[in-house]
Predict the structure of Neurotrypsin-like.
Amino acid sequence: MNSEFNGATEAPWLVNIYGNGQRCQGVILSSLWVLTAANCFLLMNPSQVELIGSPGHVSTKAVSRFLLHRGFSSWNTAPNNDLGLILLAQPVDLTAKDMWPACIPQEEKPYNTQEECRIFERGQDGEWFLKETMVEALSIADCSKHWPNTTEGRNLCVVKKDSPKLTTCKVPVGSPVICHDPFTWEWEVTGLVSQSLHNCTIPILASQLLPHIQWLKQVGALENSLQPEDKLPSAAGQQQPHVAKHSDPQGMLSTGTCWQWG
């Protein structure tokens, strides 16, 4: 199923990244950090991040610097540790409540190929447009038939539902794969797209996020400026998110909030 929304409030954590005439996507982690694929930095020298909130609210932030995951290797057909971080020159105003951090996994758990997953794609150049595509996960055994060197627990392969009817399965590098956790009933960023092709017989390759949570904490990318006690917007007709509260049992991650459907 493919759906198009005339609005950004369905995915207020999704951003466009621009540089050298190219575009990638990423997700907001906190007021200063955006997560994307390391492959994005091979396509461009990122210069600006475009954030889209409520109608008419488009914010462009300059890039202060970007970091590749220390274990990233691009020489494989299936890149390992394909994650990168962007530090913004100015913080995102999360208190306006129309831009939110994405929810990410917080607990070690096996990935279930039966989970319901989606990929979101933002319109370009300030367009208030959002495309949502339902995808199905493949086993690593099936994935490796198309993408050699894929690794269990590190890579993730998905195919678009009704892909035989589609003309292309190309999505921007860094697009988030959002999956529904059947145990917590929350939607989380399970992975970020590394490679995709127009040919829909080839699955979309992504890097799993869960193995890299400790790296995000060490960098400080999860330190959040939006607190659970902050009040939600109450404007008539505005979607009210479920606010997921995450606390780190080791005290490494301050309690923060992220966007949920429902």
Observations:
- Residues 3-8, 225-256 have pLDDT under 50 and may be disordered.
- Residues 213-219 form the longest helix (7 residues).
- The longest strand covers residues 58-68.
